Amino acid sequence: xxxxxxxxxxxxxxxxxxxxxxxxxxxxxxxxxxxxxxxxxxxxxxxxxxxxxxxxxxxxxxxxxxxxxxxxxxxxxxxxxxxxxxxxxxxxxxxxxxxxxxxxxxxxxxxxxxxxxxxxxxxxxxxxxxxxxxxxxxxxxxxxxxxxxxxxxxxxxxxxxxxxxxxxxxxxxxxxxxxxxxxxxxxxxxxxxxxxxxxxxxxxxxxxxxxxxxxxxxxxxxxxxxxxxxxxxxxxxxxxxxxxxxxxxxxxxxxxxxxxxxxxxxxxxxxxxxxxxxxxxxxxxxxxxxxxxxxxxxxxxxxxxxxxxxxxxxxxxxxx
Length: 320
What we know:
Layout: E1 4-8, E2 12-18, E3 23-29, E4 32-38, E5 50-55, H1 57-67, E6 71-79, H2 82-94, E7 101-104, E8 111-117, E9 122-128, E10 149-152, H3 160-174, E11 177-180, H4 184-188, E12 200-206, H5 207-216, H6 224-233, E13 239-242, E14 248-251, E15 256-259, H7 272-287, H8 290-305
Parallel strand pairs: 1-6, 1-10, 2-8, 6-7, 10-11, 11-12, 12-13
Antiparallel strand pairs: 2-5, 3-4, 8-9, 13-14, 14-15
Helix pairs in contact: 1-7, 7-8
């Protein structure tokens, strides 16, 4: 019987708008620098390369996990509208259960507009949370569900603290392994959530999130290895930090690995993080080998980076 993974997070409508008709501005601040995408006031930007699909942390991870031959159960919320019902049909087409994709009449399905600059290999995302603000984990009756892993992605909204407490309590009572990819709302206030780390089998963040997390927990002088060591001290079993084109770093209480990546022609950066995380977890479940899981997660991310869409081109079990 295949392992079952519960994926908790967002599902939403997504439009990816590709254009290179923008200026990239760089602003130097202290020892660092920030980059910005800029357009002239009143400008009219056209594109013949627009992709309409669906995305979100729960959606993107579920697609990879399903393609890897594992049983997956996404948990999220949609509106009782055209896009919400389209998401239900899309999941059915992929063979992914929507049993725990609840429908609310109180708000609209979440929506994201991704402005993607292929030549710069960067994007910005404009998000309307919609009904995701109404998500309550306690609304779902999971008494009969058995799972091996719980994949927790970004959560937002007024119920976030309540949801995280409920989710970790559920995982503890059921003895379910937790893979946690926290969102920015959790990262910025991570000092509130360190108490859950002793339940986390794998914590995965990117290098920008790592720096923000270090500030939240008042780490002092920042380095990836110092942050990983602190998170392990809090009880986390494994820490994974992705660093864009620099690859990914892995830490546990015994090992430290670095997985490099090769230079590629990036078409779209949306969903690359989800592709890595779900690819890593799926490979680890199948093989139990961290180095192989890191390598496969990176390959799955590269496959998404070279296609349009947040989960198009994901690899399959035969690609392990």
